[in-house]
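Write out the 3D structure for:
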Amino acid sequence: MPMPARLGRYAVRRRIGSGGFATVWLAYDEQLDSPVAIKVLAENWTEDSHVRQRFLEEGRFLRKVESPHVVTVYDAGSLDDDRPYLVMSYADQGTLADRLEGEGLTVPQACEVIRQIGEGLHALHQRGVLHRDVKPANVLFRTVDPEHDGTMVRAMVGDLGLGKALDVSSRLTMIAGTPSYVAPEQAQGEHLDARADQFSLAALAFLLLSGRPAYAHGTLSAAADPPPPPPLSTDDRRFSARVDTVVRRGLAADREQRYPDVQAFVAALVAALGDDGMGTLPARWLPIDPELTQPGNRPSLVPTPDELPVAGPPRSRRRRWPAAVLALVLLAAGGAAGFVGWRHAHQSETFTDADGVLKVTVPQSWAHSVSENGWVPPGSSFNQSGLSVGDAADWRDSPGGQGVFVGLMAEDTLPKTMPQHPSCTERGRPEDTTTHGDPTRTVVSTGCPGVIVEHVVQVSADTLLWVQVRAHDRSTAASVLLSVHTRGVG
């Protein structure tokens, strides 16, 4: 969907994110003089009455929830093609996933975020709504001006996807959830209650307090029968046995052993942390990050397409490729030595797709054939975000061709089989691992001539990121793979 000048009465500024079910735009409410986020149902679901109904029901549920720690829905409407949209509060301070890519959180800050997200989940549960996908990417931050202590950053429960709102019996999902945060009963497809969200919040608490995840499940089947979590304490942070006991109870595989509700878990954790978790206001609030996307100046006139900002979307959230994949690409066949000096020996160019969702950096010699307007995945008739850069128009079919393809596709599981490359003399075995809890599958083939890397990441419950790199040597392939960025996905 190209960037519209307006959505209803709202002046559109730029795209925030895009997934399999919706696109989210940053816009400005000129009547109320305030930035907003507008989620629009994706074109490929326009004719599906079930998806449309659940999209609107999500807005109605959120509209009924009175909590500063749940994303607020202010308004709803329809485009000229009858696609619905929801107007929501704008998270100008990004997500918890953004924060964790930097220095992380102090213990008082972690305690405050857990407390606020607990309040948001409790408000949802009071309305009979389960979140079912509590994870860093779905914890949003926005600035507010309290009556005292200056400006603060507030945490909110949010979600840019639609998959979690669908019934398990729906043809659109199997068992929803992110493996490293999902409760065992959810991974098993059982009937759920509020204690499933409590498990996810406890997993989030383990991550924020210790600086490492409690689990690194690659699949939902692994999450269905988790082992006991490791000790909460690390060399850098020591916690009392009481704190460890509280978090472990929240992570109990048997939900009957958990706390009766989210409020009880949060209260027990705050009490166990004591002075370590309190801090003083505003010390336990997160600091404002000036580099995160801001709404910009208030538009004084109705903008035309030529007058709309040309700046890119929010700062990218770079996905760190797992060590197992890097070992395959960088270390095999002496690739590591070549990689060290790769960027010093090659001029490079960076390309972004038309949606502003995908970005990749390639050798300048590859930039002869560029396609930025997306792609239509196999078995689908709808366009998705995609980017292709190669040294020739036929780089994917020509022996010795070099290039990269990066694309999104609406799928809820990793592919069972990966593309075959008959021209390669040696095809590696599929390597399954995780990236920040997201399942990944990678195959490295050699003697093609050169190397071909197929890399797939389950970036959300209903979206895959697919990367294919063809290069003459492993070090070049590794550098290109490491440069891939996604914005607003997952």
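The chain has a mean pLDDT of 77.
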